[in-house]
């Protein structure tokens, strides 16, 4: 590794990912280790681009997201990740972090995955660390769990286990696409982080969620190996509904799905009845993502357009450093 030079700068880009088998619950909050592994597709739309510039004159890190200076919880999470990078680099130099997130606020997709994947990639480079993809994935994980998967192109499996074991890596999968259906772009009422904590502490079903998700991940990876898109789709939809079931079983309960979300799950079933293999999933909010064969994506988009604004996403690139000419 090179010594961190004051004035060093790097820019990285990363995309959001949508899990087919979900991460919901931590085994360790300090190291951000998941209770189970998960499987996702990195999207080719809505990138986050982040620049980290070292500045020996700065008394503290500065965080600017979408042109607004951030303090408080958001900045604290960024500073914590920079502290990890500085510890690895043996540096105490502070940094300017500038990030542009292109997820239209109307899409309502979480940006923490693309955000922390881009931040980890840019910060490691700016501080002169030469990390491989596994080490970058582990670093991104510490910022936000799902960010471990946005380091990886196309389809990613993120392993549970110890700090050393818990990184994401690419896995071969059938030729799939997703349709992102935006039901409601408003800020969610309970953050993923808080809702996960409440699930672990209060849901009587949490142990069953952990056991069944570990089994679903094994079954999903077997479906990937077999190239069986429909089996993978069934596992995806079942796992999503199980996650929402365990979330609804908290005390006090949390419900992320709205009536329109449920209508979109019903629409997926109608599409299947018409011979189009579409399967629905949803994260910690009312938006629904439909998984389908790559060549059915436009049809699926058009068949849900009366319920929600819908866009096609295809398997996208992993996190990347951008040369100065492309910033
Ligand atoms: C997932 N989600 O697998 C699941 C499904 C949301 C629903 O990962 O606390 O923002 O930062 O590690 O990664 C969202 O949780 O949580 C998430 P932290 P994160 O995509």
From TrEMBL:
Q: Which GO terms describe its biological process?
A: isopentenyl diphosphate biosynthetic process, mevalonate pathway
This protein is called diphosphomevalonate decarboxylase
Q: Which domain of life is it from?
A: Bacteria
Under Enzyme Commission nomenclature, its number is 4.1.1.33
Recorded GO molecular functions are:
ATP binding; diphosphomevalonate decarboxylase activity
Q: Which organism is it from?
A: Microbacterium telephonicum
Give start and end of each Mvd1 C-terminal domain: 179-305
Q: Name one GO cellular component term.
A: cytosol
The UniProt record lists the Diphosphomevalonate decarboxylase-like N-terminal domain at: 14-166
Family (UniProt): Belongs to the diphosphomevalonate decarboxylase family.
SUPFAM superfamilies per UniProt: GHMP Kinase, C-terminal domain, Ribosomal protein S5 domain 2-like
What keywords were assigned to this record? ATP-binding, Lipid biosynthesis, Lipid metabolism, Lyase, Nucleotide-binding
Q: Which InterPro entries match?
A: GHMP_kinase_C_sf, Mev_decarb, Mev_diP_decarb, MVD-like_N, Mvd1_C, Ribosomal_Su5_D2-typ_SF, Ribsml_uS5_D2-typ_fold_subgr
The keyword ATP-binding appears for this protein: yes
Q: What is the lineage of its organism?
A: Bacteria, Bacillati, Actinomycetota, Actinomycetes, Micrococcales
Classification via NCBIfam families: mevDPdecarb (TIGR01240)
**Keyword DNA-binding attached:** no
Please give the Pfam families that the UniProt record associates with this protein.
MDD_C (PF18376), MVD-like_N (PF22700)
């Amino acid at each position: 590794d090179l010594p961190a030079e004051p004035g060093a700068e790097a820019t990285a880009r990363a995309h959001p990912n949508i899990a087919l088998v979900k991460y919901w619950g931590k085994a360790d909050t300090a190291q951000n280790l998941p209770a189970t592994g998960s499987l996702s597709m990195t999207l080719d739309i809505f990138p986050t681009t982040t620049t980290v510039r070292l500045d020996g004159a700065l008394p503290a890190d500065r965080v600017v997201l979408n042109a607004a200076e951030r303090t408080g919880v958001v900045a604290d999470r960024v500073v914590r990740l920079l502290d990890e990078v500085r510890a690895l680099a043996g540096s105490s130099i502070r940094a300017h972090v500038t990030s542009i997130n292109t997820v239209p606020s109307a899409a309502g997709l979480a940006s923490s995955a693309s955000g922390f994947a881009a931040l980890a990639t840019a910060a490691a480079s700016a501080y002169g660390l030469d990390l491989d993809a596994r080490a970058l994935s582990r670093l991104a994980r510490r910022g936000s769990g799902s960010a471990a998967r946005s380091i990886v192109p196309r389809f990613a499996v993120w392993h549970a286990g110890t700090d050393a074991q818990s990184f994401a890596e690419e896995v071969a999968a059938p030729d799939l696409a997703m349709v992102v259906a935006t039901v409601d772009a408003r800020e969610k009422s309970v953050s993923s982080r808080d809702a996960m904590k409440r699930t672990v502490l209060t849901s009587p079903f949490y142990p069953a969620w952990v056991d069944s998700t570990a089994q679903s991940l094994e079954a999903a990876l077997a479906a990937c190996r077999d190239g069986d898109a429909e089996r993978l789709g069934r596992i995806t939809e079942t796992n999503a509904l199980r996650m929402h079931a365990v979330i609804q079983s908290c005390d006090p309960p949390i419900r992320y799905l709205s009536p329109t979300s449920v209508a979109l799950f019903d629409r997926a079933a109608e599409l299947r009845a018409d011979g189009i293999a579409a399967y629905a999933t949803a994260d910690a909010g009312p938006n629904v993502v439909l998984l389908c064969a790559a060549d059915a994506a436009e049809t699926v988009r058009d068949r849900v357009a009366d319920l929600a604004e819908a866009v096609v996403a295809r398997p996208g690139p992993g996190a990347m450093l951008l040369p100065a000419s492309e910033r």
